[in-house]
Specification:
The structure is a single chain. The protein is about 45% helix and about 15% strand. The chain has 7 helices and 7 strands, in the order αβαβαββαβαβαβα. The protein is of the alpha/beta class. The chain has helices spanning about 15-35, 55-70, 85-95, 125-135, 145-160, 175-190, 205-220, and strands at about 40-45, 75, 100-105, 115-120, 135-140, 170, 200-205. α2 packs parallel to α3 and α2 (about 55-70) packs parallel to α7. Belongs to the LOG family.
């Protein structure tokens, strides 16, 4: 069945270009909701797309994905390489559901080969909505701008009550402790955030502790 664009209402001030953009956004949201509506318990794993397969981050995320899958928890990632690939790979190894929410970018735009459910997105915010909406917990590995953006958006959503409190672990003391301590030293001390806000996140050393924290809190 062919689809037709809905013409903008006369005098609405919405151009055809903007109308088409609205339809694309709506289509992405609809496709994601239809695909993930029955996902059940799931954890989203974030982290750098640039880590090598022999890095500790890759090995750890793969092991975490497997531990979660063996416990009956689906794994959701951004669908790309690096930490995302590792999480999906571990989920498959643990006979769990491996979900990749990919996005078209100049780099890292192809879905990794360990994804069972592959959904492609054009817009970051629709993809991010799905990564958050259908997860009950989050594991964040070392990463760059995108990973840090996802971390602070999650914290903001929980802090402001837009997202129910959920387990959120930062995996890797060496990478995350400096940021955590900076927030205590600068943001808490200046009154920009409350000390209790940092209780929303837990820095853990490895995948075993991460899995234990996530699974324990998911059971409650």
């Amino acid at each position: 069945m062919s689809s037709k664009s809905i013409p903008p209402a006369a005098g609405s001030g919405i151009s055809r270009e903007e109308q088409d953009r609205i339809e694309r956004i709506s289509g992405e949201l609809r496709a994601g909701i239809e695909e993930l509506g029955d996902v059940g318990p799931a954890v989203s794993i974030f982290g750098s797309a640039r880590v090598a397969t022999d890095s500790w981050e890759y090995r750890s995320a793969c092991a975490l994905g497997e531990l979660l899958a063996e416990a009956g928890v689906s794994v959701i990632t951004g669908g790309g390489p690096g930490v995302m690939e590792a999480g999906n790979r571990g989920a498959q190894a643990g006979d769990g559901r491996s979900i990749g929410l990919n996005i078209a970018l100049p780099r890292e735009q192809l879905a990794n080969p360990y994804v069972d459910t592959d959904i492609a997105f054009r817009y970051f915010f629709t993809r991010k909505f799905m990564l958050i909406r259908y997860a009950m917990g989050f594991a964040i590995y070392p990463g760059g701008m995108g990973t840090i953006d996802e971390l602070f958006e999650l914290l903001t959503l929980v802090q402001t009550g837009k997202l129910q409190p959920c387990p959120l672990v930062l995996v890797g003391h060496d990478y995350w402790s400096g940021l955590y301590n900076w927030l205590v030293r600068e943001s808490v001390s200046r009154g920009y955030i409350a000390a209790a806000d940092l209780d929303l996140v837990e820095v853990v050393p490895d995948e075993e502790v991460a899995a234990a924290v996530l699974l324990d809190k998911l059971k409650k």
